[in-house]
Amino acid sequence: MLTDAPPSSLLARLERWQWLLPVVSFVVGWVGYIAIERGPGLARGVAFTALLSWPWLLLEPLAGRWLHRISKGRLSEDAACFVTQSLQQELLFFSLPFVIGAAQRDWGHGLFVLVLAAAAVLSTLDPLYQKRVAQSPVAAVCFQVYCTWVVALVVLPIALHLPLEQCPPLAAGAGLLALAAGLPRLLGSVQGLGRCLHRVLPPITALILVTGLAPAWPPASLRLTEARMTTAIVQQQPGAAVRQISAEDLRRDGLIAFTAVHAPAGLTQGLSFDWYHGNQCIDRIPAQIEGASDKARGWRTWTRKQNFDGDPRGSWHVDIRTAGGQLVGRLRFRVT
Q1: Fewer Cβ close by (within 10 Å): the C or N end of the chain?
Q2: Most confident of the ranges 10-19, 155-164, 320-329
């Protein structure tokens, strides 16, 4: 917005309310998370709103000079940095509830949540952000690439109904676009091929690495609402939970892994139930879920295993994973 007030006065007014933006961003993130359960139209609307910020993030250096020019100097190029920081806060806090909702007790999930939460908090701490991110071309571009990558993982399944296994390469592509847009700022006056590669190769390597590690990250648009091991399903309702069963009963009745998974409306997602005896995968049974606005409890599905060869005694667990290998949930039981 154009104003006759000097830039320092405008920024001073904004700084009085700097605590408000993170709060609003966090609330908007949870509203978007809840919207998935309220209806496909509202959920996709919130997701597309998040996508609208991408053009600005990609073109921020040009936008800063454009704002400075059309305001005839009343707005400095630092105003573009302020807008970028605000959008990054919005996107990170929008993504955080989805990641928290999908996270399980797994080292990869915990690491992903911690890094995302740390990035969101960093974007709200103006002195630290300005000193460590905004003032460093390398840190600024890498932080922008990270924000773009994270939001792509969260938003694409909601907005475009893409299965989760298709999102990591697309998110990496979005990160590369953000990196390409930031090349003028990243390279600046750097001369020599070696020095240029020294700045460009690390973020590219990081994108390739995190894409390869996609099975370790939480499936951000899925949420496990119910899960149990049981011996019976009656009218699509699971029986009593089983945490321990004798080998004799196991061979006679078998065992059922029951889950209810909440997914965005319109999303069709393949799953697999991987049965492990100790650390050895004994069986892998495919399944499929569909997101629907009227499935408040989640899409219910289950697999029954009846053949247990050899000695089944010991610790077992069943991993529910996406077709791309991301962990949705884990069920444990013991055979005595």
Answers
A1: N
A2: 320-329
